[in-house]
Automatic annotation (TrEMBL):
<comment type="function">
    <text>Unusual broad substrate spectrum amino acid:sodium cotransporter that promotes absorption of the D isomers of essential amino acids. Neutral amino acids are the preferred substrates, especially methionine and phenylalanine.</text>
</comment>
<keyword id="KW-0479">Metal-binding</keyword>
<feature type="transmembrane region" description="Helical">
    <location>
        <begin position="510"/>
        <end position="531"/>
    </location>
</feature>
<keyword id="KW-0812">Transmembrane</keyword>
<feature type="transmembrane region" description="Helical">
    <location>
        <begin position="468"/>
        <end position="490"/>
    </location>
</feature>
<keyword id="KW-0472">Membrane</keyword>
<keyword id="KW-0769">Symport</keyword>
<keyword id="KW-1015">Disulfide bond</keyword>
<dbReference type="GO" id="GO:0005886">
    <property type="term" value="C:plasma membrane"/>
</dbReference>
<feature type="disulfide bond">
    <location>
        <begin position="177"/>
        <end position="185"/>
    </location>
</feature>
<dbReference type="GO" id="GO:0089718">
    <property type="term" value="P:amino acid import across plasma membrane"/>
</dbReference>
<feature type="binding site">
    <location>
        <position position="312"/>
    </location>
    <ligand>
        <name>Na(+)</name>
    </ligand>
</feature>
<dbReference type="Pfam" id="PF00209">
    <property type="entry name" value="SNF"/>
</dbReference>
<feature type="transmembrane region" description="Helical">
    <location>
        <begin position="399"/>
        <end position="426"/>
    </location>
</feature>
<protein>
    <recommendedName>
        <fullName>Transporter</fullName>
    </recommendedName>
</protein>
<keyword id="KW-1133">Transmembrane helix</keyword>
<feature type="transmembrane region" description="Helical">
    <location>
        <begin position="551"/>
        <end position="572"/>
    </location>
</feature>
Amino acid sequence: MKAPLGNIASKFMFWKGGADISSPCSSNYGSTKDKSGFHESASTARLDVEKSATAGREQWGSPVEFLLSCVAMSVGLGNIWRFPFVAYENGGGAFLIPYILVLMFIGKPLYYMELCLGQFASAGAVKIWAISPAFKGVGYGQMIATWAVVTYYVSLMALTVFYFFSSFSTVLPWAQCGNWSTEFCVDTMSNVSLANGSDYKTSSDEFFNREVLKIVPYGLDHGIDIPEWRLTLCLLFSWMVLFIVLVKGVASSGKVAYFTALFPYVVLIILLIRGLTLPGAYDGVMFFIRPDWPKLLQLDVWYAAVSQSFFSLSVGFGSITMFASYNDFRHNVYRDATIISFTDTFTSLLAGVTIFAILGHLAHQFDMDVKDVIKEGGTSLAFISYPDVLARFTFAPQFFAVMFFLMLFTLGVGSASALTGCIITIVCDQFPSWNKKLVTFVVCVAGFMLGLFYVTPQGQYILTLIDYYGGGFIIFILAVLEVIAVQWVYGIKNFCRDIEFMLGRKTGWYWKMCWAFIIPVGLMVILIYIISKSKPLTHGSYVFGPGANAFGIVLTIFAIGMVPAFFFVGLYKNKKLPFLDSVCLLFRASEDWAPMDPDLKKEYAAFKAGDLTPLEGIDNPTNITDDERH
């Protein structure tokens, strides 16, 4: 019998190519007997199978490329821009408790489930619904939500490009008030402490709003102006980079991930060290980690935690499923889900400490409370507070500014390429004869055209609108349907059986409880509460009118409406069958729900029929040979 330490070591040797990462199970799992009664080696059979598995479909160059691509996808602008702001809005440290709990019981289990779905079927967010064809519209709804998010996400990348080139100035342009500033502008380098400074704004604040965005106070009430030409060029550059990354599929994006996943940490740590050395940083960090216990009783805070978890991990968008679909069938996504969720949380906390150290310093300078430092939310936190501390670097501030905005851009590339690649994969899965390079080009051009709305003076209002209705509500509802379809309709026992066949791993009660009960019930309770307590949508002091809200509601209905629409399409295709038989057929997994490789399909059919030796143990089965078993 193998020693436990030997089992553990063998799982990590894949980094050196010294072990099979596909399964920690016993060697007789998946084996077949010949007429003589001898067992064929499962590992040898699988190696032969993997050579032909997912033939014709792209594959990652190595397990490391897949892991780093997932890290680059999850660790994006959401960690640097959105997480500190969401925590800032929801009481600082009090937000960390629901966020970590949501990550443990909703975010991580959903991430693992979507990895398993994509890898098992070797298909994107639509074709995986062979598992339950009645819910095929969930995949199309996710595509609409992903498209809505990626259009504004790349516009944020365009802002980082603008700041990147601005950082090459002799003096950082946001460090001093310019001809674009008002009489209330205060130079970033000023050491003047302003009592009752609520009417004053730093030069970095006014530079962002008045010079870069040229934002208008009347919002969308008077229509939309023409795009700002400098931001338009930056947007075009961003989409050109994405096209280059995506044009060769995972073969190119996997190599880029080495840089996009690792480089940001170097810059973020440098900023953290600098931020912690500024006066007042301690107060900001303490505001971040000190919990406001009454906040935990507000479901709004829990909704914000779920929304942030979804946005940060990219759960519910279909991109996780897409990435996993390019894996080998036996790849150990169980390990990857743990690594990625931990890395994402660590990065969010790292960014949170960094930004709140800066906010503490700004509060010290203006003689204000930390919670009163920033009056506007959203992107202003990343494009005001971060540039502010960069301007305070006494040594080569231009260099650090260039590095920082390059970091933001690389973070954006990692996430945006995953979201855009999800759309490309769905299209190419549905139309395999189409040229993938041409599809990539068309998607990028369409994304650029829609992105022009976000580089107008009203762009930030449009971003808030689309983020709320397109990136929040839609994903939230579709995630509930996704879990119900997989765990309740297809069945949690069937899904765990499929994981056992694919990974050689029994599924523990933690995963089962999260999938079958905690996630669907928890999400539905929070969703019902938020709908019942909904307030008028605002951006700063601007309140969105009926027309803007109507547009957002139509967008939500259109995406969610994909579910019943494709259900009726399925009924129409089966119109020759009796109605009840047609309905039952749609809720039953089709023959396409199986490994794509023919040999694996046969092995899977035998496994379902009970002809293969089942595994023993939960989550970490021991390697027991037949001799040891007897």
